[in-house]
Amino acid sequence: MGQLHKPGEIVAKRYCILNVLGEGGSGVTYRAKDLKEKEQVALKALSLRQIKDWKNIDRFEREARVLAQLKHPAIPRYLDYFQVDAEEDRAFYITQQLAEGESLETWINKGWHATERDVRNIAEQILEVLVYLHSLNPPIVHRDIKPQNIIRQPDGRVFLVDFGAVQEIYHSTLARSSTVAGTFGYMAPEQFMGQAVPGSDLYGLGATLLFLLTHRSPAELPTNQLKIDFRDRVRTSEAFADILEKLLEPDLDNRFSSATEALKALRDKKSQQARSIQRKPTKVLAGLAIGTVVTVLLFEGFKYPLMSTLGFTPYPFYTAIRDNDLETARTYLDKGIRINTRDARNSSPLHWSVSNNSVDVAQLLIERGANIHDTYDAYQKDAHTVLHTAVHHDTKEMAKLLLDFGAKVNARNAFGQTPLHSAIIKKGRYEYYGMDSTQPAPALEVLELLVARGADVDAKDNSGQTPLDYAKEYGYNEVIAFLKRHGGN
Prior knowledge:
Elements lengths: L9 E2 L3 E9 L4 E7 L4 E9 L9 H12 L9 E8 L4 E8 L4 E2 H6 L6 H20 L14 E3 L5 E3 L3 H11 L14 H4 L5 H17 L8 E2 L2 E2 L9 H10 L11 H9 L14 H28 L5 H8 L3 H10 L13 H7 L3 H9 L18 H7 L3 H9 L14 H6 L19 H9 L14 H8 L2 H9 L4
Antiparallel strand pairs: 1-2, 2-3, 3-4, 4-6, 5-6, 7-8, 8-9, 10-11
Helix pairs in contact: 1-4, 3-6, 3-8, 6-7, 10-11, 12-13, 12-14, 14-15, 18-19
């Protein structure tokens, strides 16, 4: 989202904006000076400009009250929350004690190479925080543990910031999006299905520690049977690698049962040695080995179809879609990934490929049976098609591919808008998986393609507006002239 304030502005007659500390999908966090208390604070602002239903604002307030009750030395205190109504905007604010230091991401970007001892120290401190949070009644789950949300001071002390509950409320309730709180690469598999539990925080911590050791997002690392294959990429003791592996178990049941158990394993000197293996009678071992092999072989046969049916698809598959990596995408499809599986945002692989303009992968998915007419409800609950998405992002080659395979040029979304309407809408639009428009106006070549394929230039949306009305509203003179040349009224 865009920045709401500039340095020097005064918010609520109390907080003077100094600079931006961080920016995410749900809000902007500023360094500000509390003019009343004469101290610097972190001020998080969430714009509610495009929100029409205000009855759920109390959910923000309830969550802020919960956060205000937290008392732990590694959690900056939540000080205040309030709402500000202005003529041009409405926003909800949360103020928090300022954690001096820099995020782990910043430390790495500046060239810091953490030793195993450094990483263990960070793990121990965060686990202590999680023991506290998860022991509350009810337990508080952070939901978004990642390098950006852990602040480290030069003396090694760390702070956990930016709890994900607020952004989850923002997306799911007010922004009417199915987006779940969390960050790709650091989210546990169950979070993709909308389930955030204490064990999810352990996975996020493991992924963060792995980033410190590899300087790469866990999403970029190879996987083996859904597990991140990292051992040959880190220089740590086997004992610590074992702990990392258990933190990163994709199956919640195989992860540490609690932060307390993980902390005990980390502190236990015996865990720094190779774990002893109890001897078992040869016949029993042989029987177990055969049973294990059979189980693995059976699981391999239905693992991917089952997991994609449940809404969890391996990271590398989505990475392949994003990077237009045809070979990797084909490999996972061959393994049984369901072609029309849906993620937590209710989007299928085809929608991912169109959103990322991965033309080759999109064609592969369509040839394998992807439903080109499916609608999607991300963000605005607008039930748009993939053609709406392609033209919205000015991707002519993708739009042509979809039309060649039978996409309906005059398909309607929930607002009655056709792809021609969507191709013109640019201002204040929502992002699709991080894509941004770099053009100040719609691409005429996309409009020409749509009209040449039979787009109705006089189609009216549910409000009675035509594409020409949209072009006039946004002041797109070239588009206005183009539509009039083709009979637009």
